[in-house]
Each structure stands twice: as structure tokens, then as C-alpha cells.
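Field log, afternoon session.

UNIT: design team B
ACTIVITY: writing a sequence onto a fixed backbone
BACKBONE:
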């Protein structure tokens, strides 16, 4: 497996030329007061799930964000994504709250769960 980060803070997990997952991070809010807080996203191919890809990607994101001086990392997760919820708890994120019916995808309303981790 090969993991790399490009200049846009996109982390890619690749194995034998096949992308199995990627992670990104960027500003949590676009105001100066939030300049030390980021929000991240992780996507793992369905056939690569439950194989440690997401945890490796998240580890790299946390290390990179910490090295770049960020204080806090935030995750917004669909409340039906139990694997992601468990991963974030395992990685030291704390549950902060749930926003009800704030997303709509695949012909259903989504609840957004927020998790947070202090990096420093």
C-alpha cells in the first residue's frame, strides 16, 4: 500500500495502482476566528472497507494537520455510518452533537453527527 498527500491536502491510499480510498481536509469555517480548526472527509471504496484503510488515512490526516499547526479537527458524519462513528471514537474524537435532517441524499433525509478532536 502507498499513501501520499498532495499540495491540496488530499491523502490517497493506493494499492498496486488502484485507489482504495482518499481523505481531504480544509477550513471548518471561512472566517479568521476559525483558522486553526479544520474539517475532514474520508472515502473508502466499498470493497476495501473494514481493512484498515480509513484508519490509516485518518492517522495521516491527523499527523499532517498537527504538523501544519492546526488545533482542532472536526468530522461531520451521517448518523447511519456506524463504521465511521466507531472509527472516530477509536481515534480519540468526542461526540459533540447531532443536527437532524440537514442533508438529503438517496431519497432520504440525513442526520449529521459532529465529532471533534483536539490536536494540541
Amino acid at each position: 500500500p502507498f499513501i501520499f498527500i498532495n499540495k491540496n491536502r488530499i491523502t490517497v491510499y493506493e494499492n498496486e495502482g488502484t485507489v482504495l480510498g482518499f481523505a481531504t481536509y480544509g477550513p471548518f469555517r471561512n472566517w479568521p476566528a476559525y483558522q486553526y480548526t479544520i474539517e475532514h472527509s474520508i472515502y473508502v471504496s466499498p470493497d476495501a472497507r473494514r481493512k484498515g484503510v480509513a484508519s490509516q488515512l485518518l492517522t495521516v490526516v491527523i499527523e499532517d494537520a498537527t504538523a501544519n499547526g492546526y488545533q482542532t479537527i472536526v468530522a461531520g458524519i451521517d448518523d447511519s455510518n456506524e463504521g465511521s462513528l466507531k472509527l472516530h471514537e477509536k481515534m480519540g474524537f468526542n461526540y459533540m452533537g447531532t443536527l437532524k435532517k440537514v442533508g438529503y441524499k438517496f431519497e432520504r433525509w440525513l442526520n449529521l453527527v459532529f465529532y471533534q478532536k483536539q490536536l494540541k
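LOG NOTE: The chain has one domain: 2-118.
NEXT ACTIVITY: expression trials, pending approval
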